[in-house]
Amino acid sequence: MADTQRVQVSVAELSRHNTKHDCWIAIHSKVWDLTEFIDEHPGGAGILLRCAGKNATNDYDQVHAPAILEENLPSDRFKGILEEAISDIPPKGTVTEARQKNEATQNEENPLRNPELHTLISAADFEKIARTALTPKTWAFYSSAATDLITHHQNKAFLRRIMIQPRVLRDVRKADFSRTILGNKTAAPFFISPAAMARLVHPDGELALAKAAAAEGIIQCISNNASYPLGSITQSTDPQQTFFFQLYVNIERQKTTELLLKARDLGIKAIFVTVDAPVPGKREADERIAAVAIQSAISGATASNDKKGGGLGRLMAQYIDKALQWSDLAWIKETSGLPVVLKGVQSVEDAKLAVEYGVDGILLSNHGGRSLDTSQPAILNLLELRMKCPEIFAKLEVYVDGGFERGTDILKALALGATAVGVGRPYLYSLVYGQEGTQHLTQILKDEIEVSMRLCGLTSLDQISPDLINTSDIDYLVRSSNKFPDIANTRGRAKL
């Protein structure tokens, strides 16, 4: 592409390539030949043909993140730089000038549209701002959960039912809350959980999350349905920054193979295989609002609308392989050559199987309550695993997510044996303020952990044990393993 970068294409020349059999389109000053791609376009050939022979930057930006073309098209499809439009089109990855002017005007007309960032002092504050700052569809997509929201609400509620029993009269002038996750050092015992299409909140989307994570020394787990290409995210910041990658296995296994190889080559440190969502849950708030035209830069999943509604999560999940099973884990591990973590384990039995199949970690997660409603709260699953199978924590690393938004929440999970905690929705809400907001949220969580540790008499995370907490209020909810008699044989049914 190096020589082509010096070739200038006039608007007149571009306009001559405007048919299905000769289709050139300009995106962010770069001219591409999309003729061979027309019939493969996920959004249909008609969209490309309407833009054929034109500068389609504005239409493109409404659906795609920058750099998708560079990631997915052969270099010989790049024809050169659009001559007359060079000075008018912003570089990839930036907010358009029109958008900047619009935001400036809005700020002048309504300077209190969003409070000053420094006035936000908790994760909950970001959620309050996001509720009004985001579009109704984006808010519905991120905040929604399955059906009656039981699991979604209980994730947080059950965390608050666990009490802390601090120790006193200890020298707590220093408090070290750094951690190692799968051999990777991190400044705090939490990471950014994967969440789809962050660009719906802010034009920098996952790039802002990556830069904030690097600045704060924590790890980001990139979503398979991210709005930016994987390479754009990993290369947007310090080369030493640690990234994990969340994987949904594609029904076209070859595409997953290619993605795993790309992740490995880009320096991804672990693969988090999502196992709790072979199909998406019914998220009614998301379904009620018509879907917007978006496409994931990594999975290629697109949104549309149908007779069931406009749920982005459901519409973008059609590529997921419903036949994924335990025996496939060896293929994922061998192909990637990376540590494998199962994201979405929710039972002691599956945790034991994870050990048998040689995975490196499990993330106890119910998808933030977005998959199967009335499934157990995440912290209850962690408590049950600790009570029934404590030896498992020495065999693999255990993480948990779902409802965590306080430093005390995180300490409670660590006391039960978790290596680290995933934080999801709060980070999406923090993107209302871009990278600066994400860093501010991280600093809030770090400060809450440090203060809580000192108040508990702790100077290191290695000192945490179950003695720190009182779980009596939820202990009785851990089901006895012999509560129900075995009647499978009498009814002619095989055990699961």
Automatic annotation (TrEMBL):
Signal peptide: none annotated. Its EC number is 1.1.2.3. It catalyses: (S)-lactate + 2 Fe(III)-[cytochrome c] = 2 Fe(II)-[cytochrome c] + pyruvate + 2 H(+). Residues 115-474 form the FMN hydroxy acid dehydrogenase domain. GO terms for molecular function: heme binding; L-lactate dehydrogenase (cytochrome) activity; metal ion binding. It is found in: Mitochondrion intermembrane space. Transmembrane segments: none annotated. The keyword Membrane does not apply. It holds the Pfam family FMN_dh. One of its GO terms (cellular component) is mitochondrial intermembrane space. Homotetramer. In the C-terminal section; belongs to the FMN-dependent alpha-hydroxy acid dehydrogenase family. Belongs to the cytochrome b5 family. PANTHER family: CYTOCHROME B2, MITOCHONDRIAL-RELATED, S -2-HYDROXY-ACID OXIDASE-RELATED. This is L-lactate dehydrogenase (cytochrome). It comes from Pseudomassariella vexata.
